[in-house]
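Notes, Module 5: Reading structure tokens.

Key idea: the token line is not a picture. It is a compressed description, and you learn to read it the same way you learned to read a sequence, by spotting repeated patterns. We will look at two proteins. The first is printed below with its tokens.
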Amino acid sequence: MNKWKDILNGPEGGPKECPSCGQTKISTRVEDTVVTYGEKENAVEIPVHIPVHHCNVCELDFTDDFAETLKHAAVCRYLNVMTPDEISSIREMYGLSRAEFARLTRLGEASLARWENGNLIQNAAYDQYLFLLTFSENLERLRMREAQTECRNDLSYNNAKPRDPKEENFSALVEAGLFEEKSALAHRFVLRRAG
């Protein structure tokens, strides 16, 4: 796997810097570890392989952001939901900014940011919605729906006077010839005090 080779060689193939002493004499190994997900009796241990860096000068072992990304991805796989990279790739596949994607899908932009940055894991319902968005025809349906809504809003804004729901109900009853019948029924009822 080329990604592991890149990890072992450091960013852009160069060495990593020790966060303690600043030296660049770093070696990297892949370790098996576990991520604990959940609490108390519901906690599960999820196995994951992460890169661990070792400073050959001060002997410090340390991990980096990529190790945290791998741990988060392991939890996502355990929960059977998309990883942050997979969520970002949906939006990027359509060439949309986060704000554009949020507006079109009606997902919160802040929620998208949290999911894409790995700060929060989406629930199963949102994950299903995101999965459906991997199919371009579904995003196209959302675009069509948005266009129809905008058109409908433009027509109602340009052609309508302020609506009075009581007036509309009265007009509908008169047109259907039911006003007299409903009026007669209303007079039969007498309000009495309870108790």
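Here is the second protein, with the sequence above and the tokens below, as before.
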Amino acid sequence: MNDKNIIKYINELLFNHDCVIIPGFGAFIADYENAKINITHHLFFPPSKKIAFNANIIKNDGLLAHYISEKTFVSFNEANELIKNFSTKCLSDLNNDKHFEWLNIGEFSLNSEGSIQFSPDNKVNFLTDSFGFTSFVSLPVKRETVIKQITKTHIDRKIIKEENTKKIPLSIKRATWITLPLLLLMIWGTFNHRVMNNIYVNYSDVVSSFISEANQLTTQIKNQAYDYSKKLSPAKKVESKKSISIKNKLSSTPAKPITDTVSSKIIVKEKEKPITTDNTTIIKNEKHFYVIGGVFSEKSNAENFISNMNQKGYHAQIIDQTKSGNYRVAIAVGADQADASKQLQNIRDEGYSAWILVN
């Protein structure tokens, strides 16, 4: 197996793990970054997972060896031997050429003090959730303010003149033409009653018929004038006898007080209780941040390691079993990424090699 294949396997592990250790050489540690915006250059960057290199973490955790054994169908010991030769060659190349580059990972070099310096390849984003997202430039949109002027168009309306003069019906005109001479004659007769008495005596029959006809005409004129005045003036509301009788009945009966017989009820909603099972509240966490202290192929070795760590004050436990049958032992569990990183640093300060597993 050549070196390019081992570099390829390291690259694949970095997409799914936050810490990949190369025994005898160093370890890659992931660092998460949120989406960013460069206001000056109008650049948008997606969320990413960058990697850093720590040359002090060199203890074998078995992750890389197990992955190589699964991919190449070699034994675990053979995979460890391949990794050992690879690490030795990398250190030798650094001492001779002072630098070398791993594809899609980054460049290694030695500084003046002889320490290993690592420059990551920023073109590669190891965060699988941001797969397919790249940085892009979005220039600001210039908007022009459009002012619309509303012009009102007025249409000339024809002024309609109301006719104040109302026409008098023809029947009333005819009645006035007939009654006017008779009224004049009656006025003249009041002042010349002697002449009227002589006429009455001599022409009593004629006068009596004339007077009766005149009275009928006068009554007809009054009725027509009354109807015409009703049309010109607003009609008055006249209460009927039936409505008057109903009002009298209502006024005669005493008013009874109105009582509300509907009883009011106050409805109180009970507060919703949290869903519990066997007196234990169910709490779901999306992610767990485990500080892995070792991976063991034998369960007895894992239990011995747990016993030793618990005697030193840790709460070690087996968290899962890999596809190849190995047991992962977590020394501590973090509430989030920051808490797990803090506990990881404390464990490393005490001389133990560990790494973070997000599950």
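Summary for the second protein:
- Confidence is low (pLDDT under 50) at residues 234-244, 249-285.
- The longest strand covers residues 26-33.
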